[in-house]
Amino acid sequence: MIRGGPSLALACDACDAEVRQPLGPATHDVTCRVCGRAHALQAFETPPGSAPVGRCLRCGCARLYVQKDFNRRLGLWVFAVAALLSVPTWGLSLLVATLVDLALYTVLPDVTLCYNCGAQHRGFPRNPEHGAYDLHVAEVVARGPRAA
């Protein structure tokens, strides 16, 4: 993960590789290091990181959600190991895993994600208009505009 300022992570349209790049006032696109394709960004209203994200910087979608910036696979592995160790430890490993999870939840920063393209906006202040992931909103965005 890129630390120290605002950044954008997305999947390359050409090769599906993960593209991560720090954002600065002069950043107009992000380039895939695998295939070299440039992905244009939406224009910044303010310098990156100085204000909350209102729209996705990649696709311009206003439907965004916030979650903790933590690897879900790693979290599942922690609880899988704790569950396997629960019998010999009389369940204490599950308590320890829960306490570790709670500590990480309070310490880790938030990341803002786009429902439409999945772009991850890191290093921006949290926008109070964006809540947690909502399956209904995700289905509406995935379905797209419908004819009457």
Can you characterise this structure?
This protein has 148 residues and is of the alpha+beta class. The relative contact order is 0.19. The mean pLDDT is 89.
**What is the number of helices?**
3
Based on secondary structure, the structural category is alpha+beta
Strand content: 15-25%
Helix proportion: 25-40%
What key phrases describe this protein's structure?
single chain, 148 residues, alpha+beta, 5-stranded antiparallel β-sheet, two-stranded antiparallel sheet
Brief digest:
The chain is α+β, with helices and mostly antiparallel strands. It is built from 3 helices and 7 strands; from the N terminus they run βββββααββα.
List the topology elements.
Blueprint: E1 7-11, E2 18-22, E3 29-31, E4 38-40, E5 64-68, H1 72-84, H2 92-107, E6 110-114, E7 120-122, H3 135-143
Antiparallel strand pairs: 1-2, 1-7, 3-4, 5-6, 6-7
